[in-house]
Amino acid sequence: MNIPTESQNTEIQEETDSIDLLNQIVADIDAGNHETIASTLEEAHPAVVANLIESLPQEHRAVVWEAVPEDQEAEILTHMHDDARDSVIGGMEEGELLAAAEAMDPEDLAEIIDDLPQKRIEALLEALDNDYRSRLEFVLNFEEDSAGRLMSRDVISVRPDVSLAVVLRWLRLHKKLPPYTDSLMVIDETDHYIGKIEISDILTGDPDELVATLMHPDTTSINATMSEHDVAAIFEDRDLISVAVVNDDGLLLGRITIDDVVDVIREESERALLHSAGLSEDEDMFAPVLPSAMRRGIWLGINLITVFAAAWVIGRFEEALDKIVALAVLMPVVASMGGIAGSQTLTLTIRGLALDQIAAANIRWLTTKEFLVGATNGVVWSIIVAAVAYLWFGDPGIAMILGVAMILNLLAAALSGVAIPLLLHRWGIDPALSGAVILTTVTDIIGFLSFLGLATLFLL
Question: Which CATH architecture has domain 289-459?
Fold first, then answer.
């Protein structure tokens, strides 16, 4: 009997609370109990409220947002996906938006401000005080989805030539430490990052010892231009809680903490899942019908083109299909088996690219391995399928051709499952977004071409 862990129980409870909250809020909206809504939202975590708003249709969002406490608006906005957040911001007055912006950290506002209309950006920047605006503009100088956009400048640094007693007195001057402060960054007299000292060492060390004696000379620092994806990989590989961010000259700019990296990992997971269906990770579940239809219609159109390509191949063998009805019955078997085998290889390859496990040095090994897997499965399943076809139709020729076509399509599926994502990645196209569509086309065409082509050559 499997007993849920404490973390699993917490996740189950949070999911139940979110569902109960959604049902309760919808009931209160229908009943017009706006005061009840306000008191309920005041007790909920901002992340839960953000998820609640995204779970409501457009007309209900305005009602709920009116009931949100003003001191929570900023944090709620930072937890929302782009499209849903834009729908809320679009209804906010300039003063309300400014108050929410001033309550955000500059890196959070930088993520939001990129999606605002230019006029609102200009008005917002003009209304911000000079100190906050300069901090925001510093963050905006970095590329989107880079470490510079992800980092916080809220970092405590010390010099290597001071004692632990001095460091402790310095820490006590702070009303509170920045979240996830597991260590202090050590810099030289020119503000260059040279390492870090653990908080635990400061608390347990001899007060007369110098920082330099307990400091860990740290090569694990992140350049501000590094991508968020690479930052997340470093945190995962090295089990970090925080890491220093530096510029090209080694100057300390800020730090990135584990809570920000968890958000990046979650967003990448959502992106991969939604891209596999041709959707954006910021797709608003309750967006208006027309924009949603247009977004999804693009991929339906692309898929239609691929379907017509496969249909055209089938049409080339109309004579064979007219004379041998069994071909039409068995034809989907080859294409379907190739599609499934190819999607397995495609998924593994995309995962390898996402985890930076595929490079020029091991592409040949991967391709060879997947080719042999395809050959093995092709031989095994071709025998099984051929036997079923023979028992069904009693024609050894059709059974043999079906088996050979199966082997050819599974080999093609294996090679395509590796080659397609690698080529798309090299061309700067997300393979999770378009790889499956291309792969399906390839396996359908090769499956139909091999099966019907061999039947035309040997049975007619």
Answer: Orthogonal Bundle (1.10)
